[in-house]
Design a protein that fits this description.
Number of strands: 7
Oligomer: single chain
Mean pLDDT: 92
Largest sheet: 7 strands, mixed
Strand content: 25-35%
Order of helices and strands: HHEHEEEEEEH
Radius of gyration: 19 Å
Number of helices: 4
Length: 140
């Protein structure tokens, strides 16, 4: 069932928007969930991932491996994590790309912009909850 009239439910159009997105839009698309401790502390569910965050892989071949984000490759929609390498046939070691949907952020690298973003997200969540409470009180 279609909920929003302004957004297309066509698979073709949504895939075109996803894979044809510009860099700043990809930054937002490449967000990961926060761990339960961070979620409780900041009252935010997910954040866009960045270079020095510490993450844990929760799905796939490298499940339960932890490390620091070394590189965020927006072009390929993947993140490279330290100590997560694969040996090629010729003996070279190559970083493995992990999609952000398979990660959980365990430690955030906080600077003033990121702190402001966390506070803004938490504030928006609180105001939304207050509106729901007011709306539900009028139901009776």
């Amino acid at each position: 069932m279609k909920y929003s009239l302004t957004v297309s439910s066509s698979r073709r159009k949504s895939r075109k928007a996803h894979f044809g997105a510009h860099s700043e839009a990809r930054r937002k698309l490449m967000s990961a969930n926060l761990s339960k401790e961070l979620r409780a502390r900041h009252n935010v569910r997910s954040m866009a991932i960045r270079k020095d965050d510490e993450v844990m892989v929760v799905r796939g071949l490298y499940k339960a491996r932890e490390g620091k984000v070394v590189q965020v490759c927006r072009k390929k929609f993947v993140v490279h994590i330290d100590r997560l390498n694969r040996d090629k046939v010729n003996g070279n070691s190559v970083a493995v790309g992990i999609q952000t949907s398979n990660l959980v952020i365990t430690k955030l690298k906080l600077d003033k912009d990121r702190k402001a973003k966390l506070e803004a997200k938490a504030k928006g969540k609180e105001s939304k909850k207050e509106k729901e409470d007011v709306a539900m009180s009028n139901v009776d």
